[in-house]
Amino acid sequence: MIFCTLFIATDAMSLPTNRAKDKLRELSSMETHQVAGHALDLVEHGQFEQAEALLNQSLQWPYQRESLPLLRVRAGLYKRKNDFVDEAETYNQILQLTPNDKEALRGRVFATSHMGALHLAIKYAEQNPDVFSQAELLDLHQASAGRSIKWGTVEEKAGIGQQRFQATDKALLRNETVRTLHALEHKSESPSGRYTEFDRIVALRDRVRMKDAIALYETLKQRRGDIPAYALAAVADAYLYQRQPETARDLYLLALESSKNDRDYPNREWQLKLFDAYIDTNEFDAASELIDKVVAATPPILNKGLRGVEVDNEIYEEARSDQARTRVYADQLNDAQELLEKTLEAAPFNLDARLTKGDLFQFREQPRTAQRQYASVLVDDPGSSFAATGIAETAITLHDPRTAKQQLAKLNQYYSENREVQRVQQLFRAYSRPLLTVSSGWGRSPSGLGNRGNQDWQVDTLLHSPLLNHHWRVFTHAFNAEADFDEAAGIRRRIGIGADYRSPEWRISGEVNQDQTRLDNYGVSLDAAWTPDDHWQWDVGFESNSNNIPLQASAANIRMHSVELGIGYNHNESRNLSMSLGYSWLSDNNRRIEAGIKWQERWWSGSTYKLDTVVNVAGSDNSLVNADYFNPRSDFLIDAQMINEWTLWQKYQRSFKHRVVLGVGEYWQQGFASGMTNIVRYEQELNLDPFRTINYGVAYERHPYDGELNESTSVFLNLTWHL
Fold first, then answer.
1. Which of 54-63, 491-500, 612-621 has the lowest mean pLDDT?
2. pLDDT at site 465
3. Domains, the chain
């Protein structure tokens, strides 16, 4: 046995050298193919780890041509595992052995494409265009241009100023090139041709070319092909920007519905945008239901438990603040404040919640507190356009146009396309323009008691100039009133000119006027109000030719001087207390003292209905008896009014409201029995924007004078208009 073995070995060694090598190579190739076949079988059965271990054991560096079957199986293994980086590297190794291997040339391009390096994939493909069809090359160009658009989206969200659009501008140029390639090849209706158009919608949205995005969408919709969810969401963003929230809402819903089979369903960003659409359409119940679901389903922490990569989930933080924002815009401000306090207690650095708290303070009529809140956000995030916009808006409310102008100059430089920036810029322009205010009314009383006669009317008109030197306006003031009494008509015509100064703490107004019915009757008016914070206001006023004079007294050539002091406490939009004390002296030697206390409380607040009550206590004392006008020796009134307000229609800053006011009270007059007072008033209010308002209505009142009940009806029209 030993002899035979030695003989065979010796015989093999005696063969020519080349022949021996060929024989060994043949045996090795047979073994390699067997290993490759076994590994391929493991891959096809999903046994990836066993297949990879077998291939790593069988492949030895440096690779030879005999290694090609194993390398091809390894490339297929990485493809099945979606390990595109190692797949592309394996094809590179194959191409080092066989540079013209068609399968490897194609595989490297597609693996490189799948791993996200689309620019490199196109470079490889253009080096060997003959191994690809024209349709495949167009697909690669479309995918590469689409990836550029995605990078543009990331830069637009994270960048500051106009530079954040640079990547999107380049991506739009690439997209246009790819569109042209498809048109030249008559492939515009191919899948890649249509996706080139869908990608363009996204890029146009990112570049804030919303009208172009909508126009392209409408064109594609007419072709009756399916539009993917990401394009629907992008065009929904465009419609929302164009103030068409109903259309945007429907498109977001369609995008979410059509993406139900996607791996990352539901897309949280789209849900938050749908939430914005619900807010803009005033569907607050739907918004609240949606955002509560998002908060419940979104983890607060990403990569939880992984040291070094565990981070707060920005989507969760935004959704938590949106829970409060729903209640802010639905006028459920107490609930919003409670929710924000809980959110900030758990996450004190949540910028979204802090911004929403600034918005809340604005709604609560606390502009100084809101401004401080926005400023604190700006310290931590200097690039926050929302915080800077909030500071500008509160500055307008506080009559601080210098600060508003400074903030808006920066915002217009960096974020001129931002809708909030545009809105506040519009507010600032309106604030700076001339201002017209008109208060008018007409009444009728069959009994003719009191100081209003049988029939009366009045129109009080103020026309302010544009803003001068940041704080000043000049104005003209015209007051016209007339009342018919049994014995005569009381007429008052007063014209004045003056100046008005306003700043965050002070409002000072001075006027010189003349009575047009008595040209020698000149007068001055001075008013000052000090508002040191968001809650307190102190007022003082003086008139030497007061319009509050009874018209019967004016008809008798009597003049009236008056001084008034006032103090008001504004807790927030739901509670207000004010007190006033006035002293008047008339030229007929009458001295009048008036005092009053008013309490306003909001008991119910919502997006559609609000319920307020106003309790008023007032009294007066007059020194003159038997005057030529209604002049009780002393009187006292206590009444309460219930104000019911419904918002019939609202779209952004425009709204249409109506109110029903019901009031009842008791009036005491010295020398006469007390009597009950009643008022029923119905009014409508049309807000064209925050600086143009029309208010009109009708009222019915019952009030005793000198022991006799007086009934009157009246209509009124009030106007506030920045010209």
1. 54-63
2. 97
3. 2-131 (1.25.40.10), 465-677+704-711 (2.40.128)
**Residue 531 φ/ψ region, left for φ over 0, alpha for ψ in the -120 to 50 degree band, beta for the rest:** beta
Backbone angles phi, psi at 62, to 5 degrees: -80, 150
Tens of pLDDT, residues 72-90: 889 899 999 899 999 899 9
CA 25 – CA 69 distance, rounded (Å): 14
Indicate whether 14 pLDDT > 60: no
- Distance from C-alpha of 495 to C-alpha of 516, rounded to nearest angstrom: 7
Q: How many CB atoms lie within 10 A of CB 669?
A: 20
For residue 139, how many other CB atoms are within 10 A of its CB?
Answer: 20
How far apart (Å, rounded) are the C-alpha atoms in residues 107 and 81? 15
pLDDT score of 504 more than 60: yes
Residue 148 pLDDT > 60: yes
Residues constituting the chain = 723
Residue identified by tokens 């080349």 is 18
Query: pLDDT at position 12, please?
Result: 34
The β-bridge partners of 714 are 443, 699
Task: Please report the pLDDT score of residue 494 as a whole number.
Answer: 94
What tens digit of pLDDT does each residue of 398-408 get? 999 999 999 99
What residues form DSSP beta bridges with 462? 437, 477
Residue 552: per-residue pLDDT: 86
Rounded Cα distance between 335 and 316, Å, is 20
Evaluate whether 135 touches 190 at the Cβ level (below 8 Å).
yes
The full DSSP string for 187-215 is: -TTSHHHHHHHHHHHHHHHHTT-HHHHHH
H or E element, residue 610? strand 609-622
Residues 259-272 as b or e (16 or more Cβ within 10 Å = b):
beeeeeebbbebbb
In one-letter notation, the amino acid at residue 165 is: F
